[in-house]
Amino acid sequence: MTEGTLLVVLAAGLFLVSPIVTAFTIAFFVAVGLILQRLLSGWAGRVGQRATHAEVASYSVIQEALRTYRETVVAHRRADYVSRFQAVRWESAQVQADLQFMSLVPKYVFEIALVIGAALLAGSQLLTKDVSAAIAIIALFLAAGSRVVPSMLRLQGAMITIRGGAGQAAPTYELADELGQLGGGSGTPDPALPPAEIKARLIAGHGDFDPSISLKGIRLAYPGSEALALDDVTLDISAGRSLALVGPTGAGKSTLADVILGVLQADSGEALVGGQHPLTAVARWPGAIAYVPQDVAMANGTVRENVALGLPLEAIDDSWVWDALERAHLAVFLRDNREGLDTLIGEHGLKLSGGQRQRLGVARALYSRPKLLVLDEATSALDAETERIISMTLASLEGQVTTVTVAHRLATIMHCDSIAYLENGRVTAFGTFDEVRAMEPNFDHQARLLGL
Ligand SMILES: Nc1ncnc2c1ncn2[C@@H]1O[C@H](COP(=O)(O)OP(=O)(O)OP(=O)(O)O)[C@@H](O)[C@H]1O
Ligand SMILES: [Mg+2]
Prior knowledge:
Layout lengths: L1 H16 L1 H49 L1 H6 L3 H51 L2 H51 L13 H9 L9 E8 L9 E8 L4 E5 L6 H9 L6 E6 L4 H7 L4 E4 L8 E2 H5 L10 H10 L3 H7 L6 E2 L8 H14 L4 E5 L7 H13 L5 E5 L3 H4 L4 E6 L2 E6 L1 H7 L1 H9 L3
Parallel strand pairs: 3-9, 3-10, 5-8, 8-9
Antiparallel strand pairs: 1-2, 1-4, 6-7, 10-11
Bound molecules: adenosine-5'-triphosphate and magnesium ion.
C-alpha cells in the first residue's frame, strides 16, 4: 500500500509537469512490470513447492535412517542413506540459490528498462522537438524513473515473496484437503479442562459410563485398498465381560480394536460403546476407555509424565501413578534402581527394554482406572512369569471392567468369556475357548501346538 501510494503521488506530480512523459512512463513501467510478473510468479510458485518437497524429503530421510539404524548398520547400508541425504540437501541448496537469484532479477530488468526507456524517449523527442526540450524531458523521465524503479522493485519483491510462500504452503494445503476428504481431523479438539477439574473427575470415577460394546455389520477398507480389512463384523459384549480377538496375522484384529476405540470410522455399520459413538463416550468420560497399543511409544519426560501421558503436572496424583506401576509390575524396578517417578525416560534418560516399555504402556492404560480396556498384544514381549502376573492383574478387573484383548499367545486369552476368531476381516467363529476350538480347525491346531 505504501509503495502504491507513493507511485500515485509521483504520477500526479509528474502529470502536472508533463502529461505526455507521464503517460509514457506509466505505460512503459506497467508493461515491464506485468511481463516480469508473468515470468516470475509462476517460477516463484514452482520453486516454493520444490523447496517444501526438498525440506520434507530431508526430514523423511533422517527419520527413516534413525528408525532403521540397527538394520541399516547390520546390512551395511549407511552409505545409501548418506547419499540419499546428500541428494535432497543438494536439491534444497539449488532451490535456495534459485530463490536468491530470482530476487535479484527484477532489479537488473528495471535498470535496463530505465535506460531503454530513456533512449526511446530521447529518440522520439529529438525527431519531433529541439535538443533542449528533449534533454529537459529525458531529465524529467530519469528523475521520475529513479524514484519509480525502487518503488516498483519493492512491489515486485513483495509479489515474489507471496507467490513463493504460497508455493511453499501448497503441499500443506493439499495434505489438509486430503485429510478433510478422509474424514480425519474432525474439527478442533475440545478446550482442555483445568487441572483441578481433571483430577476431580478421575477421583470421582467414571460415573454412569456403560462399558458395553455393540458392533453391527462393520465394514471397513483402508484408503487405496480394494480388500476389506473388516467384513460384516457383528459382536455384542456386555459390561464387565472379556472378549478376545484371535486369528492369523493380518486378519484385522488391530483394525477392529481401532474401530471399537473410535480411532477408525467404519465405512458402513455401527460401532457403539455404551450406546454412543466411541468418541462421544471418550469426550464425556475421559479416561473411562483405555488402550495399550501393539507398540507403545515413549514420551520424552519423566516416568510420571509417561504414565499420566498428556495430563498437566498439577493434575497428576503420584499415588495413582505408583498404583498403576504396581499393577503393571514395574514399580519394584523403579523403586530400587532409579529416582522413582522423576526418572527420565527417552532421549536423555533411561532407555527401557521392549518388555519394560510394554509394562509402561499397561501402567499408562491403568492410570485412569478405566472401565473399558483394549489391549493389543500388550504382553507379547514379556517373559512367562511377568506375563502371568499382569494377566492376574487384568483378571482381577473382571466383572468391573470390560476388556478386549488381542493376543497370539493363547494361554493369555484362554480364560476370556468369549473369543472371536477373525480371518480375512470376518468373524468365522465366536464363543468360549472350547466352542471356538470345535468350530475352527486352525484355532484347534494352534492350541494343540501349544499343548493346550
Ligand atoms: N494403515 C493401514 N493402511 C492400509 N492397510 C492397512 C493399515 N493397517 C492395516 N492394514 C491392512 O489391514 C489388514 C488387517 O490389519 P490388522 O493390523 O488389523 O491385522 P492384525 O490382525 O492386527 O494382524 P497382527 O496379528 O499381525 O497384528 C492387513 O491386511 C493390513 O495389511
Ligand atoms: Mg495387530
